[in-house]
Amino acid sequence: MLPDMTRVSQATRRRLEQASGGLAATSVAAMTQQLPWFRRLSADQRAGVLLVTQTGVTNFVAWLGEPGETIRLTADAFRIAPRDLARRISLRQTVELVRVAIEAFEDQLPLHAADDRERRLLTEGILRFGREIAFAAASVYASAAESRGAWDARLEALVVDGVVRGEVDDALLSRSSALGWDAEQPVTVLVGSPPSESRPEPLVVLRRTATRLGRSVLLGVQGARLVALLSGTLLAPPRHVDGPAKPDPATRLADTFGPGPVVIGPTAPSLALAHTSARDALQGLRAAAGWADAPRPVHTDDLLPERALAGDPHARAQLIGDIVAPLAEAGGELTRTLGHYLDNGCALESSARTLFVHANTVRYRLRRVSEITRRDPTDPRDALVLRIALIVGRLAPPSEPTLSP
Hints:
By secondary structure, this protein is mainly alpha-helical. It has helices at residues 10-34, 36-39, 43-64, 76-79, 85-88, 91-108, 116-165, 170-178, 202-212, 249-254, 274-287, 304-309, 313-330, 332-343, 348-355, 359-373, 380-395; strands at residues 187-192, 217-222, 225-231, 263-264, 298-299. A five-stranded mixed β-sheet has the order 2-3-1-4-5, with helices on both faces. The longest helix is centred in the middle third of the chain and has 50 residues, at 116-165.
């Protein structure tokens, strides 16, 4: 504790009050000389710093007249400053300003003391008052950061919800820009369950992982699901890997989700079209339970049969467009051979006898099917996709219109 501050005479306090303007001007001059970034501030911002500094001197003098009282009014020195001052000047820069101001006060304040005893008391007092000023500044910046964080969280939730609902308009694009998101960059949507609430700051790990991958991310927790908008393309890991699997970006991100499936939507060219990626990813999450051994994460294209069975019209249209239509254009024999091969339990010889052709002919046609559809009929999973595609193609009306994105 300081000694009794009543030993600083009223005459000294009055001299300090009268000199407060000069002391503040001297401090700002020192800031201009020592801090290059301060010289680049606009005139109104430097005036705001001068106002804060002069208020700090006035509060210090008021404190000298109230011995034994807790230092008060220090935060008011920051509240009366222009609103954008805290946004334009960082906390580190504020600490530099306080340091320079305190040094100037240490040089100037003792000159107004009546004797050596008052000079010592003024020096000790300004050191303590400077500490309180620093704490007040930190409190102001912490409050601003909390407010900004809460506002950013609301904006982020609105952007994610707009993408999920397919309501991407100019207002949503403006909100994304306020969050630092480039609306013209590609977007990939991931959906899964949110991390456990028992984990501290559960979404921080996902954000940190995305940053390490060089990606921007927007997150939205919607009940029991977590929706992540990730910049750039993200592919699911291959289903068949020879040797030990290496950690890939998709797996690293999936590890930050909660338990259960994690589905990757197709990459959209921009945020304005990201609702297509969200739509397919959410349909994939709904249908993922149909594939018990689905990898984690899994791409929506790998869930086409489950999505089609779950009633997703876009999955049925994609099966027709990617498999049925190309096979039909290549000739009816490929579709006929594939159908017999699948109906005969994927037995090559039985299929050849049913078709009255040589087994090598069946092998050749199946190879052509694989080249056209990029699905191997001899692989159990691809065979399921091809079978569902043929069934969807048979059930589709001939004049069924193509679905828009």
